[in-house]
Every structure is written in C-alpha cells, then in structure tokens.
Amino acid sequence: MKAMKNAEVAEIFEEIADMLEFLGDNPFRIRAYRNAARALFDLEDPVEEVAKGGLEALEEIPGIGHDLALKILEYLKTGKVRKLEELKAKVPRGVLEVMRVPGVGPKTAKLLYEKLGVDSLEAFRKVLESGEVLKLPGFGERKRERLLKNLDLVEAASKRWPLGAVLYEARELLRLLKELPEVEDAAIAGSARRYKETVGDLDFLAATREGAKVAEAFAQLAPVKAVYALGPGKATVYISPGIQVDLKIVPPESFGAGLQYFTGSKAHGIHLRRIAQQMGLKLNEYGVWRGEEQIAGATEEEVYAALGMDWIPPPMREDLGEIELAQQHALPRLVTLEEIRGDLQVHSKWSDGKHTLEELARFAAEMGYAYLAVTDHSPAVRVAGGVPPEKMKERIAEIRRVNEKTGGRPYLIAGAEVDILPDGSLDYPDEVLAELELVLVSIHSRFSMDEEAMTRRILRAIEHPLVHVLAHPTARLIGKRAPVKADWEKVFARMKELGKAVEIDGYYDRMDLPDVLARRAREYGLTFTLSTDAHQKDHLRFMELAVGNAQRAWLGPEQVLNTLPLEKLLQWAKDVRKG
Ligand code: DGT
Ligand code: CA
Ligand code: CA
Ligand code: ZN
Question: How far is the centre of ligand 4, averaged over its atoms, from the C-alpha of 502 (Å)?
Fold first, then answer.
C-alpha cells in the first residue's frame, strides 16, 4: 500500500531541483533530487514505514543517498524541509511564476532574470513583445513567438470558464487518458464533476501503478497544447483555448478517496475530514485510515460508508446540509438526465434557430425524447427575427403537419418565447397566445431597470393568465451581462400562488436560474422546467448542464415538469390557464 507521504516528499524534491537549477547549482546534485523524486513516487511501500528501519533502510531505496535520506526523516518528523525554505528565500517569487510558463525551464528563467531583469509575468511579456529577448543566446524568432503563445495560455487560464465551454474537450482528453495501457481508471473531478456553472480549471484523476509513465504520456496526448508542470505524480497542462487541466495520480486502491478529495468542494472536504477526526479516523486523498491501516479508499461509496454516511452526489457537495442528511440516510432523490422526456425551449428556423421543424423532430427522436417544445422568439427581439403575430397561424399549421407526419412521436409542442416588454406587457396579443400550447416569457431588453420596476415588470408578465413559464429569469450571460435586479422572493411567492413554472435554461453561458436562486425557488415549492435554449443541434446536449444545475439545487423528478409524460404535461399547461 502506497501512502501519501511518498508523493509529498517527491514533490518537495522536485521543487528543490527546480530552484537549484535556477540558482545554477551542481547538475549532479540537481539530477539526484529529480531521480529521488521519481524513486519515491514509484515506491510501493509507504516511506514512513521504510523510515522505521532508520537511515540505512531509507538509503536502500534505489536513488536515495545519505543526504536525501536525512531530508526524508526531517520531513517525516517536522513536516518541513529546511533546505526548501532556504531556497525559497533566494529565488524571487515572480521568477517562480515565469518558470511555470511552458518552455521556460529554470535555466531560461535564470538567463531572463540575470540579463533582462525579468522577475514577473508582466516583465516577461514586455521583453517578449519588444523583442529584447532576441539578444539572449538561444532565442530566435520562432522561440519568441512560441513563448508568447504559451504566456497567453498561462494568462488566459487565470480566468473562469463556463462549464459547457470546456466540458466536451475535457471529455475527449479523458477518453484518450483512459486508453493509456497503464491507466486502470480515470475520471473528471473538481468543480466540473460538481456541475458548477463555471470552472477555474479542470481536474483529472487517474488510477495507476505507474505514475511517472502516465504523467509523461498524458502530457503528450494530442489535445495538450503546452505543459505547465510535470512531476511523477501529476501533470498540469493546457488544452485549447487556454484551459488548464490538472492531472492527479493515485494507486488503484486509492481511486475512490482521490476522487472524493479532488471533487471537493473544499468546504465539503473540510467538513468530512472533521467528521473523520471525531471518529478517530483520518481522511485524505489516499483513503480513510485507522492509524496506519487503510479501511476504505478504492471507491467513493466505501469512503462515505466508512464515515457513517450515504454516498453524496457530487453536485450536492457544497456543505449546505448534505452531509447531515447523508448521515441520517435522508438525502433527497435527485432528478436525472434519463428522466427528462423532452426539451422545453428550442428555437427553429421560424426565428433564429438553424433547423426546420422537421429536423428538430428528428433530433428529438435521436435524443430519445417524447416531446420537444419549439419556442421561437416574438418580434420584439429584432436580432432574433421573431415570428410576427400574423404568421403564427401558418407556423402552428406547420407544427401540426410535422406531428401528423411523425404520428406525434416525438410530439412538437407549439410554443413561443414571448418577450416581456419594459412595462410588463407581452409581445403577442392574447389571441395569438391562446393558440399556443406552451408560453414562455422572458426579458431581452432594458436589463438595467431598478429593482422595483423590474419586479413589477416580471410580476405583470407571469400574472398573465395565458403564460406558463418564466424563462431564463435573470437574463444574465456568464462573464458578459449581470443578472437583472428583482425581488425574487416576491416573484417566486407569486408564481407559487399561480402555479407557474420557472425555467433552468441550461445554455452554457446562461445557466439561468443560477444555482443559488434555483435553491430558493425550490424552497418556495415551485415547479421547474429544464431546457437548453438550443438554436442548433449541438446545443441540445446542454440538457445535461441544466440537469446538473437542477441537482445543485437538490431538485427531484417530481419538481421538474419535463419528467412528465406528454399527456400529463399538456394537461398541466391547460390547468395553469384555468387558474
Ligand atoms: P475551480 O477549479 O476553481 O472551479 O474549483 P475546484 O473545486 O475544481 O477547485 P480546485 O481545482 O482548486 O481543486 C480541486 C479539488 O481539490 C477541490 O474541489 C477540493 C480539492 N482541494 C484542492 N485544494 C484543497 C485544499 O486546500 N483543501 C481541501 N480540503 N481540498 C482541496
Ligand atoms: Ca478545478
Ligand atoms: Ca485544480
Ligand atoms: Zn431568450
């Protein structure tokens, strides 16, 4: 059984080697640290076990000499290695960051620092852009351009990405990782596994007995654009466009514990570790331990069970009460993607969608859906080429024709996404609304009204007797447009009285309702619709994101309208209008 200390000491030795190299130390000594790091990582036995045999036993590990054996003992005793602290004081902080730009090793960083005074990422950009670097030996135009690109990658990765903008690329990388022969299992962890609406970076976990080999092979997979850090137990790389992926590696008997640890959230993990402590146990990324004995670790289920609780779905892991419920075996059942019988917001060629109604019906069939609501825009949304009221009869007739042709399998629901005008009135006359089976209302203009006016605007819209769903309620666009200000407590309370539904729009840069508000809406007992707001075929996959967000809000299938069979759904729509 490999223990966590091996990886910790290995990492310290790697860091020491980097800094020694920057300082121009003896290459043999540097090599010795790197070899030792690798040896420790590949060591099957916990180094603290070996250390019980004293200095000599440690020195028997291939690649570990007297000096390094002493440092291992020092770390096991004090949790620190003095040498590393000393070196940190000698290497300027900013230089360490520059060293992390792919293509800049310790040697180059030293050159940059000594000849051009580069002691930060900004300073590095300056000398790259001015061409000053070309004065340095070994720097040509091609290298300059490559480093600029890598610097962009590093800096782009410092922002957060909407999950849907990176998830599918990440899955492709995961597929390739899983194909490596030494990899026994692999998974995406971190905020992506929790379906958080944005992610800072992507976290991968792999189970293998050959950590060094896997880290190296991973760094060479096709989607990897640059390597930020590579150690025997981990790799950090960039995949296009500037997205950072952190690979962590554990032995197979620790896969569940590693997954638990690296899925987070941090708050959830901290709470779990406190519980472990109270039970006289220890929880880390390698397992649940009673003293030196690993009592769980291969699967997440056994990790949670060892801590006296049920397995907790990742989207719930935010320490918002889920741990207490898991201890009482009282977790709510969450809605799943498989239970979704149709998409309730999709745009066709009648407004700004890419596909005809007939094509949409075919895609819905491919998705295994029983129905799909076509919800083209109303005319106020000019850029979207909304359907003019006088054209609605023709549009509905075409929807009926498609349904006749397919026998209603899947059934196209005649819907619309009707604009809420600034005064809260709707963008279609009642005669038009009455002909539609499902009416969504939403805001596409005048986003910055004050809270009181906005609340009145929304209330008026949802109070309209022909309206069913408040779609993308906050109208925010992640990273681009702030949510509108409204008194959501008032809105949700009123919607509950009226029996109207609220949407979770899963389009990747909307994710609206956001999780916090969705939780609040659930507490009001509201009914939800989950949708993708698809404008083309590819977008239909965002249903997964809508479901993920619904799970973050603890929604069960009974709170989600589109888990209903078609007849029940249409009946609901009729009942809402009866009031
Ligand atoms: P992100 O990347 O900002 O979207 O959020 P996460 O949750 O993916 O965070 P990240 O990538 O920094 O770390 C991945 C997971 O690793 C995190 O959810 C929990 C675990 N983790 C990382 N650092 C710590 C830590 O200092 N303490 C604990 N308890 N867990 C940590
Ligand atoms: Ca992350
Ligand atoms: Ca990370
Ligand atoms: Zn819209």
Answer: 14
